[in-house]
Specification:
249 residues; alpha/beta; eight-stranded mixed sheet; three-stranded mixed sheet; 11 strands; globular
Length: 249
């Protein structure tokens, strides 16, 4: 995608040190999108580690087992929420890194598919730089399946592939939000809540596709992945640090 490849001149990086709360974190991304599309804020990245959350897709809410799935999430310590973007249920917690990338764009809709491809590969490269065997592409049976998911392959067992990154977009007139969730550490609670949720919803999937980066590269942590992601983004645009507190004022 030419526009993505050229990139903006500068991205301001805001590191959110503490969660605002599961629901507030999701809502704040949409608030930021409104500011970016109107020019109040420029192109930016927001990075944070979320509270335990299961973000259901809109389609999930229409299934007869949705209330049971939400109840199972709460029992396992995850807050069930419904996101604006499409897809199926995805789970994350403080062992994950969320990246919200926002830019103004007069023709945001036109570049949507290319954006998935371009930034999916950017993130896969970041994981490769961090030592993982990572690639873009849906793997059979994955949760919240997507053509441009990023998966990792076990070095000793190439047949064992796990989903590491899910991406989603919100496109509005004048701008876009590209959100990525990287599962880095402590996959057991995520796998457990997904198993309970998908069983309640009556959706088939393969629990073996749920995992974390540290299963493939022992010792890798969220800080290391964040550094690799920012290095990859640094090849896309100039980066400068911003004060997250100013966004709350």
């Amino acid at each position: 995608m030419q526009q993505a490849a050229a990139g903006p001149r500068t991205l301001t990086v805001y590191r959110q040190q503490e969660s605002l709360g599961a629901a507030q974190d999701l809502d704040f991304a949409l608030e930021l999108l409104q500011r970016v599309k109107t020019g109040v804020l420029g192109p930016m990245l927001r990075l944070y580690r979320p509270e335990p959350t299961v973000a259901f897709g809109q389609r999930d809410t229409h299934l007869p087992g949705f209330e049971a799935a939400a109840k199972a999430c709460r029992e396992l310590g995850f807050e069930p929420l419904v996101r604006k973007a499409g897809g199926r249920a995805a789970a994350y917690h403080q062992g994950t890194l969320v990246i919200d990338h926002l830019e103004p764009d007069a023709d945001a809709i036109a570049g949507a598919k290319g954006r998935f491809s371009f930034f999916g590969e950017l993130l896969a490269r970041a994981l490769r730089d961090a030592g993982l065997d990572a690639a873009v592409g849906e793997i059979p049976g994955e949760y919240c399946p997507g053509e441009f998911s990023v998966h990792g392959t076990h070095a000793a067992n190439p047949a064992h592939r796990i989903k590491l990154i899910g991406t989603a977009q919100r496109v509005v007139s004048g701008g876009w939000l590209f959100s990525s969730v990287i599962i880095v550490q402590d996959s057991a609670p995520i796998r457990a809540v997904l198993e309970a949720s998908y069983a309640a919803l009556g959706l088939d999937w393969d629990p073996a596709t749920a995992g974390a980066a540290d299963e493939l590269v022992p010792g890798i942590d969220v800080q290391g992945v964040e550094e690799a992601v920012l290095a990859a983004y640094g090849r896309y645009a100039s980066l400068k640090d911003g004060d997250f507190g100013t966004l709350l004022a």
